[in-house]
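Bench notes, afternoon.
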Amino acid sequence: MDNAQRPQVIHRVGSLFRAIAALESSGSSTSALARETGLARPTVHRLLVSLAEEGLVDRDQKSGKWSLGPELYLLGSLAAGRYDITDRSRDVLRDLARETGESVFLSARRGDETVCIASEEGSFPLRSHVLYVGIRLPLGVASAGLVILSHLPDRDIDDYLSRADVTGEWGTQHRRDEIAERIAETRLNGYAVNPGLLVEGSWGMGAAVFDAQGSPAWALSVTGVESRFREERRRELGELLLRQAHRLTQLLADRPRSRG
């Protein structure tokens, strides 16, 4: 393999891992993974067989479906000490769910996306089911991705908006000018609001959580039905979100640094 091919292969393998994670409940077929990644089926099959030899993916002998492999679990457990913040966030999620009655989520930034890494159900019986642990969304989409994007430097926002086009999958309400307007509003309020842009009647609000360098690395969000997000209550929810996001930022700033 020449040097020009290596980055392409790495990109394809990364896309496969993310597709398996996104589709995995009882496993994913080769054809489904080809559709999800946009790669040719023979290419996907060849990569999966090679990854299986390394224990990075696993194939069910009866169904033929693929899932993430045991070697990934072992590698992930080693990386968890540096990247997993769910233990430290659990009390914050629980308290925010109790205070608001809504479903609460913690999302982490991964490049141009956010991935939901933890959740806590609220007491209110009607819930939005747009978010779930493992879902990936582009920056600027949903309240978590919007609030993280809004807290980035202007040059990073401009760079992202100039190359990212999410309207094809998420609708014209996510055009660059629409996202820019919501960024301005988010910066004014300190928190982001998603007024049912992904699923009609399903609202969300988010506040950024910062790493030790002051970068927006995570986001807390609450989601629920539209009737629970009237203007007056949005101000109350925003204050609660900002308070708990600041609390989590402080908790993470005090965590022990990994050695290496």
